[in-house]
Amino acid sequence: MKKNLSSEKALKVMDTLNLKFGKILYNYFPDLKKLLKNTDDKRHQSYIDYPREYIHLFSILSFLFRVKSSNTTSISLLGRKTIDNINALLNTNLDKIINNGTLSYFYNYEDYSSDELLKIPTKLIKTIIRKRTLEKYRLQNKYYLIAIDGTGIASFKTRHCNKCLKKTRKDGSVYYFHNVLTAQLVINSGYTFPIDFEFIENTDNKKYNKQDSEYNAFKRILPRLIKKFPQEFFCLLLDGLYADSVIMSKIPNRWKFFIALKDKDFKTVNEDFDGLKKLLKKNYVEYGEQSFNFVNDMEYKDCKFSIIESKEPHSSPNAKSPTLKLKYLTNFHITKSNVIKLLNKGGRLRGIIENEGYNVLKNYYFLEHLYKIKSLEAIKSTIVLACLAYTIFQFIIIGTCKSKDNVKFIFKTLNAFTNKLKEMFINYSLGDFKKNMRISFDSS
Ligand SMILES: [Zn+2]
After folding, report:
1. Half-sphere exposure (CA, 13 Å, Cβ side) for 204?
2. Contacts of 443 (CB under 8 A, 6+ apart)
3. What distance in angstroms lies between residue 34's CA and the mean position of ligand 1's atoms?
4. How far apart are the CA of 367 and the centre of ligand 1, in A?
5. Exposed site from 62, 249, 257, 332, fewest CB < 10 Å?
6. CA dist 285 to 273, 288, 315, Å?
7. Are residues 131 and 251 in the same domain?
8. How far apart are CA 37 and CA 35, in angstroms?
9. Are residues 204 and 336 in the same domain?
10. Ligand 1: distance of its center to the CA of 108 in Å?
């Protein structure tokens, strides 16, 4: 009889799925319980059934297992072993499962603050950096790649709170919304790990004309990252919004950056580059179908920088132009020998955050459906909990199947894999997971 290779592999993965899940949390997220406990809780503590770390972990699990609706969270996670497994992870002694109403009540409670919850991703990534798990993916063996990008998280037809951003459409209708700027550590095999958030929101509801912006949010998140990561070397990957001397001058010298530069932006600098490019014909390299031009020692106001430009055939047949042109401002000194790697393994990886990070968070974790979002603090909590689930999920993929491609080969879809993960977690014991385990992102 012909063997079905993928189903045999699936059974093998499922055999150790629970144990590895527990081991990954135990080895790579050892402070998670403590951090979840050290968060805000406005409930009267003598009347509570469920401690806050339980509520947060339960929420993370519901994202991890892709529960689609807030109304079905509790029933979706109900299984013979759910409570035992959560107790084992948290060292708690609960005997029942939380209901959806209690979850929603917790996050929407008056004056509840998501501040401490929002600090958790940074702390977890610091631990992972300390463990040197992602060290191999540093650019030039030194710089962790950090993409910073904004995205929409919620929108409303009527004003939702006094911090809402407001926009008028062309037809005159008005809508209200919330956006967030996220810093994510990206690695070139296509994984992204959220490390910090800055919400784009108005502070004074009388000044409608002076709205907060992504650009301003960047000016707030940058000094915080510099302060939070005093030892680490980062290379920031930024989009064209930040192509100016103000932003470049704020990035510390010990850090690097790639800022996407469009032809229409930063005119004088673009013109200088076009002129110098013609003169510096030696600063040209070809690699397969790609070609690279670069100019070093450019200046604008007090900033010194280089520019790399690459051209290659567009991979998408629907593209407007047959040639894909990428251009970046950077503070790396470009040479013929480093230009290919800097662009292919550095500058252009910002695309990952758009293709992977946000799409996954928005479509995969159904952000807008969960917890009957009411308050802004509940929205913020939802974002950070989904991001934590996403980080853990990527470790589970690597720890159990070695890569996303393998997951797709063995389980056909990420969704099917997630279903198995949930099925195992709610029905079978995690086992003796408090043992060492090392995983490697190498083979992906
Ligand atoms: Zn609002």
Report:
1. 4
2. 402, 403
3. 30
4. 16
5. 249
6. 16, 10, 20
7. yes
8. 5
9. yes
10. 13
For helices 5-28 and 376-401, the axis angle rounded to 10 degrees is 120
Return d(Cα 388, Cα 386) in angstroms, integer. Answer: 5
Same domain assignment for residues 122 and 104: no
Domain with residue 156: its CATH number is 3.90.350.10
What is the total count of domains within the chain? 2
What is the spatial distance between Cα 164 and Cα 211, in angstroms, rounded to a whole number?
9
Per the structure, the complete domain to which residue 414 belongs is given by: 5-112+376-427
Coil, helix or strand at residue 310: strand
Position 87 pLDDT exceeds 90:
yes
Rounded to the nearest angstrom, the distance between the alpha carbon of 161 and the centre of ligand 1 is 4
Tens of pLDDT, residue by residue over 193-244, are 999 999 999 986 555 568 999 999 999 999 999 999 999 999 999 999 999 9
Whether 239 and 350 have beta carbons less than 8 Å apart is answered as yes
Count Cα neighbours of 437 within 13 Å in the Cβ-side half-sphere: 23
Q: What separation in Å is there between the alpha carbon of 179 and the centre of ligand 1?
A: 10
State the Cα–Cα distance between residues 127 and 31, nearest whole angstrom: 9
State in Å: Cα 42 to ligand 1 middle.
21
DSSP string, 206-231: T-TTS---HHHHHHHHHHHHHHH-SS
Q: Output the CA 177–ligand 1 centroid distance in Å.
A: 6
Residue 13 in any domain: the answer is: yes
Find the 154 Cα to ligand 1 centroid distance in Å.
Answer: 8
In angstroms, rounded to a whole number, what is the distance separating the alpha carbons of residues 360 and 352?
11
Distance between Cα 155 and ligand 1 center (Å): 8
Ligand 1 centroid, distance to 73 Cα (angstroms): 25
CB 144 within 8 A of CB 185: yes
Q: What does the pLDDT look like over 355-370, one tens digit per residue? A: 665 666 665 565 555 5
pLDDT, residue 292, reads 98
How many A from CA of 163 to the centre of ligand 1?
Answer: 5
DSSP 133-182: TTGGGSBTTTBEEEEEEEEEEEEESS--STT-EEEE-TTS-EEEEEEEEE
CA distances for 370 relative to 243, 316, 366, angstroms = 36, 35, 7
